[in-house]
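quick one, two chains, predict together pls
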Amino acid sequence: MKPRVLVAMSGGVDSSVAAALLCEQGYDVVGVAMRLAPEPTTPIAKRRGTCCSHDDFEDARRVAERIDFPFYVVDLRTDFAARVVDNFVSEYLGGRTPNPCVMCNREIKFDRLWSRARALQADYVATGHYARIEQGTDGRFHLLRAIDASKDQSYFLFTLGQDNLARTIFPLGAMTKTEVRARARALGLATADKPESQEICFVPDGDYASFVERRSDPGQLRPGSIIDADGNRLADHAGVHRFTVGQRRGLGIASADRLYVREIRAESGEIVAGRREELDSAGLIANRVSLVDDSIASAGELSVEVKIRYRHRAIPATIRVDADARAEIRFVSDGPAVTPGQACVFYRGEEVLGGGFIERAIAT
Amino acid sequence: MSIYLDNNAGAPLRVEAKTAISRMLADSAGNPSSIHRSGQRSRRMLESARAHVAAIVDAEPRQMIFTSGGTESNNLAIFGAITAASRRRKIISSEIEHSSILAPLAELERRGFEVVRIAPDSDGRVDPARVLAALDGETALVTLGLANSEVGTIQDLAPLARRCKKSGAFFHVDAAQAVGRIPVDVAALGCDLMTVSGHKLGAPAGIGTLYVRDSANFAPTMFGGPHEGGMRAGTPNLLGAVAFGAVAEAAMNIMDAEAARIDSFVASLFTRLRETIPGLLLNGPLAGRLPNTLNLTFPGVLGESMLIALDLEGVEVSMGSACAAGAVEPSHVLRAMNRSASDARSSLRISLGWNNTADEIDAVAKIIPAVWRRVADAEPLAQVIAL
């Protein structure tokens, strides 16, 4: 019997081609589109290009019909709200800047969806992520960056462990985006020239602050003051959820220096502003650290490269992982602004070793 | 080859419908309103179909208005009745009606009408006494389903007609799920209006009728040519009507035997599922239900997951209603029957029809418990976030 694979389809070109490739490779493909967003945030007419819209589901359905595999829309809204959206909101309220894509991968695509895959007798879950999985001669699985460095999404996948990788397929890891689009065109897929989705899928208008406000009680918001390093009050603000460390715009302060958000103190509602050079850090503390292969934790201090935001370049650092899934990361030379809540992912060359969530910066 | 158990959504085309349609495709006919002989031939076919459809509910052919289906019939009944009863602003219905009743009523509520929706009991029965208690001189319309599409509960509507008539309210019965499955008699019910749908019986979708007892007191909602006695403008769907007539004739002839056959299938399937699935719940009453409908709560699983897993095994059932995106929504009927949101999400509807065989039921009685065990093990409801 052919191995069955459940392919998570967004209606975009990547997951469409992923499904098509798996069919060609002889898998028994079952496509699913996940209904995730808790609220329809924009009128249907404007929803084109964002995730989870009716149009996107129809695009995925057309691909399934064209290639001829079964396709279903599954409703994971309650799971997504509880495991991703609530976390997103509480992180912002706590003065941190969450990365919901990491959480969605960890909680929904490679956990919740895996339960569904087993219920449907699937052997694998596949997505259109740009990353690679390789199995070593010792049987251990390795998570690697995509061949197309400009599309590499391994950063979002650091939470995957050996169990996850053993049952996951990323068909696009060795392809460039150009090749994927060409393949989609050759297959006659309607999604071949669809634009990229950029924003967080459940906040298609990109207005995170309003989203957080809609989904919290007014009493949970933390308004307060913007202060300088000496504690002088520079301005007032409507809530710490409106800020992210490293942010420059929207501070509403006239100053000779360009001011950036240096620190968010959620308890007191204080936003500490500073000049660019004051944002530099020597390293960071990460929590909820997971390793792709736990066996490396015993190695003590490791020399790696760390990526502290998706669009940042990985920089050399040493890491030490505690028993309680916390890690101290020291940059080899001073690093850029560290944004609590974001993922810090450990690389060694092409390989993802693991990562965690940034708790705080270590000052220079 | 799949086993189709979703007849309440729509039955597969009956052979009689296929034969009637093929005959018409071979001999393309004219407009039934035309004077020439082709038109006359078409008119004869239309009227013959009307007679067959009328016979199945014991109505006069002239009382049957062809429409595009159950939804249009329900809309025509509601909007026709409130137009005719111009000054009255109250409508009585129930919480467990089909969306083609609930949505028009919600729209009328937005336009300022008072809509009373009677809650059913835990078996899906609407108490006629509660309907009558709400009835008054302001009531334009009482509209209720005869048999519920999701759980199959048959309503006791006989006590309503006399009081509706006395207070001057229209009495509409949505019999889309009942006709062809149980005996339906417009005179015995005493209703003014009744919806009948073609594709639930094995005609193609796109044809239905509204029975109108006394058209002098009823107002059309679509205007144009003088078709259908002035009650529904537009050249009738002759192809659909002829298929509907053929299907109605066939269903009428075999109804008792067919009901007994389906009843025994459902009884045996339910017995076997109850033996193999601990905690399985039947939604709706044990007696006083459509013979073909089984709505079951499967303990510890998401209905959505079961539905997809069954489909991949070639067994086609349904759950609640599909949203525009194609995801399933939990049944509003089960919620109205006081089932928890969790139970509603764990429920599936199995609805049999004319084409099911004993072998299919035998196969399904094995497949469903196996799928349930696998889904319950792989994706236990307890691990899914609290609903």
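The longest helix of chain A spans residues 100-119.
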